[in-house]
Structure formats: C-alpha cells, structure tokens
Design goal:
Number of helices: 14
Number of strands: 11
Low-confidence stretches: 1-10, 12-33, 54-64
Structural class: alpha/beta
Order of helices and strands: EEHEHEHEHEHHEHEEHEHEHHHHH
Mean pLDDT: 88
Radius of gyration: 29 Å
Largest sheet: 9 strands, mixed
Strand content: 5-15%
Distance between the termini: 111 Å
Amino acid sequence: MADGGGEPERQDLVVHSEHTTYVLGHSGLRGERQHLANHLSRFDTTVSRVTSWNCLRWFTERVLMSDIAVIGLGAMGRPIARNLLRAGYDVVVWNRSDRPADELVAAGARRAASVAEAMHSPVVFSVLADDRAVAETFIDSGVLAQAPGGTVHVNLATVSAGLARRAGAAHAEHGVGYVAAPVFGRVPVAEAGALNILAAGEQGLIDRVQPLFDVIGSRTWRLGDRPEQANIVKILGNYLIACAIQSLGEAVSLAEGAGVDSGQFVELLTSTLFPGAVYAGYGSMIAERRYQPPGFTTVLGRKDLHLALDAANDHNISLPIGELLRTVFDQAIADGRGADDWAVIAEQQPR
C-alpha cells in the first residue's frame, strides 16, 4: 500500500511455541490478541511438560525396566517369569539347575550365566526357598558389590524378619534397592497373574516396580517402609493356615469317627460357616486324603511355622497352638511325609 493517510496494512499475528504454531488473525486487535498469544504460549509449555512427563514415565517403565531378571525358577518362579514375558518384558533368568531355565529360554527369555550377570538388570526378582538360600545367593556371595547403582532387588521369598533386616542393610551398603514382596497364592494363582503381593520397603522403590507387580498380581498391599514388615505378615498368614489345617484335621477325624461323610461335612462347613479358599481347598484335600502333587510341602510348612515361633519369641509373645504344631510337623516329617502337601499333617489325627 502507498504511504499516506490510508488504513494500516493488516497482518496476521503468528505465535511460534515449542510444538505448535498459532495463527491469530490480523493485527487490528493486536493488544487483545497479544494477551491471548501469551496464554497460548503458556498453555503449550504446560502441554509440553505433561507430554514430556508421560514420555519419561513410559520410557522408565518400558525401556529402562524392560530388562527384568528372575532368579529362582521353582514352582512359583516359573509362572512369574512367564507372565512377565507375556507382558512384553525382556526377561533374564537364572536357576541353579538348567532345566527350568531351558523351558523359559524356549519361550523367549535370556539365560544369565551367573547371579552377578542377572544383577545387571535394572530390576531383579528372586523367588528362593528360605533364609539360607537368600543369604548364600545375595548377601554372602559378593554379587551386591558388583551390581550397578540403582538396581532394585525384589525378594518374593518367605524369609525371617531378621534376614529381611540383614538383607536391607547389605543392599543399602552397596547402593542396591531392596523391597520385600512375599506373596499369597498357590501355583495356579501365580499362573493366572493374580497373586496378592505383600510389599514393604522404600515407597519410591515400590512405585518403581509397581508396573511389574501389576503383571504378576491382582493387588499390592503396601505394609510399611521396613522390609521385615512384609515378611512378618506373610509368616503370620501361613501360621494361620497351619492352624486351620490342624483344626480341620481334628474336626474331620471326629466327624468320620461318628460315621459322617467327610466330603459332605467339609462342603457344609465351607458353604456356611467358613467360606473361603483355605477351608475349601485344604478341607477337600483332607477329606479325600489327596496330598500329591504338593502346592506347599510339609518341610516348607515347618520352616514357616518356625519363623512364626521365632518372631513371637523376639516380641515376647506366646503361641501355644504353634508349639503344638511344631510337634505335629516334626512327626509328619519323621513319618516320611515331608514332600507331601502340608495338609498331610491332618493325618496325625487317628481316622
């Protein structure tokens, strides 16, 4: 346009922000549009930050934690590793014997040559039998000193409160995170990815591994900041199951002595007074005298009973039923029933 007293040239106001270009029309309302432009820039910055956070979270969950190690491939470790594989994680496995690892390698897992190699994964799950196995594998072996800083070890084993405290201190000394996460649920529950996970430890560490817990479990119970808190709850749960098995054995023995059909007796009890998996599952095993294959052996049951008695002693608490159960378990094992399901302690009652 020629110079003079005519209308000024009308130009679109264009705002360039980090991810978006906004065209706000011509400059006739420039002040108002500049105000709007400032708001849009702030909005775009907020969107950018949210997007970046979501990307970071996705990256953390699916890239940084895509390499998960599972150490100990027994009856529970195998389905846990398999479910992580199915969820798309890169799973590294290690076991003392090769055969359980072979089937998982065939399904897509990678075999670690040693525990030390497995500990180079960002998150390590271990599913070992007892205090001794955990101590030998992690605390006394020197592998924690070789683990990269920031590694998180999630111990799913049922161990003593004392071992949990010792493990927590040893991991902290080497900059390795430690979460206690024993589970409730037998092998079929593990196969279904429906375990109840009892978690304790630093809450930030539990937050970090929660996406993995969501794969293997139906619910995570956060029980405190000290790892031993999860192990105490697990020990008490197993103690109550042992008490239920003992009382069921006594009741079934008396019912049979009176000529009552034991199967019908258990069905009546579990349909009315005592619904739930413990009474129904163990009651039917006792009524049918079905103790193989074991979901949890008598030897492991005695181990957990002793953990409960030791914990009670530490807190100056008496467990009279526990002392009775000690005798019952010892006798069952002496009778050669150590490899049977721990429901077999019911056979210590005359039937």
